[in-house]
Structure to design on (562 residues):
């Protein structure tokens, strides 16, 4: 199941996911080898077209025509030609592996094991050792966490997600429009019952919005996105951390497929109740992503349960139209007060997914030098800050963004596509928010103060009423939970040809079919459908899969703590 992402940073200004990099200096190979400096090893800048498969769509992809995209081509000679699959990327990845034909670069996300098992990715470790001074600097001691497994110490891809990332914002959760809490006098919002009560009270008072029916909660079940909006929240609201399909007990470290937990039955039963009460958008399980975003952008959806990066664009559109009240606050809702929301539990750095070089690439050395360039200070600053004199200025040695420019970043849904800023981050290597460059300035624009400054007046008002300055203030703190020694469990790959991989696919298919059926069923048949679902999971081999995964989990913990 998809990781959050992601996102966070993983979000990168628009639910963005994708390509390449940033700008930097052009040192020679000799300079890199002798000094180990943070200069980009891009001695060859002759024009080259690099093909790439990305398992993640990038709605902001600029065809390298933006100012940042053009600068990248100028500095490296590289023109990226990405392939973004339509539908489930796993199908395209499986076809690639079966045909044994690959593009130069591959980002397979959490299906990398399909390509690795097929022998489609080369080991980057020797190339990094020879040509990767910036790669080594960026990952530091975490480089060893990019090794594939306890038995195979190869590095097949460079992990995305910010290295040493500071989490200052919740990544996913239960969102509610500001107009709802304002009108209701800022009610308590801790449990699903609190959430329901607020939605119901507001929709009864305001059945229409701008002449259209007001919608309570709109969910998204479009293909793999069902994980972010429908199934992951069942885990998060019942005390689980973001481990994909798995719930793992902190103390016993025993993994179970999280849908087998009785706590989650109660969450889905609540969704069933909400659906039958008319408080869930009846199109939730048939709408496509674009339709979902359009509804949010209309301002008539009171609540969404989702990852921030999935609804960032339509929320930006609301802001651009001056509809601050119809933007969302994010609340740490749980099933009941016996649970804690673990949005801020740390997984450390586990690399997990990233870009690799395929065996079909004709010039792996040129490609590793390009990836190394992406890790350079110059490239990281270009991708995050833009072009000096255009997107920022340097005042007394400090990078500064004008108020007008910052407003464009925050309000314009097409800002990244127009400028290229942020487009070339995920899924490539990147420093995390809060990490400082050699001059003592952050690589990324995001800081706690910047986040606060970017809030609308309405958002600040709502937060103040809840006794908070930032949304993180109303969530359980990172210090309340142990750091997960396995990283993020969704990043642990089950061997492709094993029985476990077949079982996992069966479970995925069952989940995508049965969960919507149960939510949309009549309340009096829900229990029977849940029992049948559990039997189907058992028949698919769920308990055998859990035993296999427990072994893989132990190996991951050993690998990370060598």
């Amino acid at each position: 199941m998809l990781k959050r992402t992601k996102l966070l940073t993983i979000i990168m200004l628009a639910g963005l996911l994708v390509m390449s990099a940033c700008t930097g200096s052009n040192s020679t190979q000799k300079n890199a080898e002798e000094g180990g400096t943070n200069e980009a090893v891009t001695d060859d800048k002759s024009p080259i077209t690099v093909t790439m498969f990305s398992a993640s769509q990038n709605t902001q992809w600029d065809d390298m025509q933006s100012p940042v995209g053009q600068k990248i081509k100028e500095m490296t000679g590289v023109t990226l030609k990405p392939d973004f699959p339509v539908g489930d990327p796993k199908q395209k990845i499986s076809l690639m592996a079966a045909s044994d034909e690959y593009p130069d670069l591959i980002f397979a996300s959490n299906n990398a094991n399909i390509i690795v098992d097929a022998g489609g990715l080369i080991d980057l470790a020797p190339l990094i050792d020879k040509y990767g001074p910036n790669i080594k600097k960026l990952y530091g001691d975490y480089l060893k966490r990019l090794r594939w497994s306890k038995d195979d110490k190869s590095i097949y891809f460079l992990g995305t997600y910010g290295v040493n990332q500071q989490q200052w914002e919740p990544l996913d959760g239960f969102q509610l429009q500001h107009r709802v809490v304002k009108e209701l006098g800022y009610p308590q919002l801790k449990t699903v019952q609190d959430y329901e009560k607020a939605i119901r009270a507001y929709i009864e008072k305001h059945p229409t919005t701008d002449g259209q029916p007001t919608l309570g909660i709109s969910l998204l079940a479009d293909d793999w996105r069902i994980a972010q909006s429908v199934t992951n929240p069942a885990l998060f609201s019942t005390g689980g951390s973001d481990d994909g399909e798995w719930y793992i007990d902190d103390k016993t470290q025993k993994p179970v497929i999280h849908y087998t937990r009785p706590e989650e039955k109660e969450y889905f039963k609540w969704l069933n109740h909400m659906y039958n009460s008319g408080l869930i958008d009846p199109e939730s399980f048939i709408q496509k992503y674009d339709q979902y975003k359009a509804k949010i952008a209309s301002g008539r959806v009171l609540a969404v349960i989702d990852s921030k990066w999935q609804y960032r664009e339509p929320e930006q559109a609301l802001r651009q139209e001056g509809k601050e009240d119809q933007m969302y606050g994010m609340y740490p809702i749980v099933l009941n007060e016996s649970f804690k929301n673990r949005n801020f539990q740390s997984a450390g750095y586990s690399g997990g997914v990233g870009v690799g070089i395929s065996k079909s690439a004709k010039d792996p050395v040129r490609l590793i030098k390009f990836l190394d360039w992406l890790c350079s200070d110059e490239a990281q600053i270009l991708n995050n800050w833009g072009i000096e004199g255009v997107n920022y200025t340097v005042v007394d040695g400090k990078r500064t963004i004008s108020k007008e420019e910052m407003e464009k970043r925050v309000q314009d849904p097409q800002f990244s596509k127009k400028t290229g800023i942020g487009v070339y981050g995920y899924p490539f290597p990147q420093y995390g928010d809060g990490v400082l460059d050699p001059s003592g300035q952050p690589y990324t624009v995001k800081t706690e103060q910047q986040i606060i400054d970017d809030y609308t007046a309405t958002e600040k008002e709502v937060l103040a009423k809840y006794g908070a300055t930032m949304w993180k203030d109303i969530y359980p703190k990172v210090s309340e939970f142990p750091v997960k020694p396995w990283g993020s469990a969704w990043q642990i790959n089950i061997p492709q040809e094993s029985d476990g991989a077949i079982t996992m696919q069966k479970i995925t298919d069952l989940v995508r079919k049965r969960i919507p059926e149960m939510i949309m069923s009549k309340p009096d048949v829900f229990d029977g459908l849940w029992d049948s679902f559990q039997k189907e999971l058992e028949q698919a081999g769920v308990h055998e899969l859990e035993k296999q995964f427990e072994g893989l989990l132990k190996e991951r913990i050993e690998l990370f703590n060598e």
The chain has two domains: 29-166+351-431, 172-342+447-562.
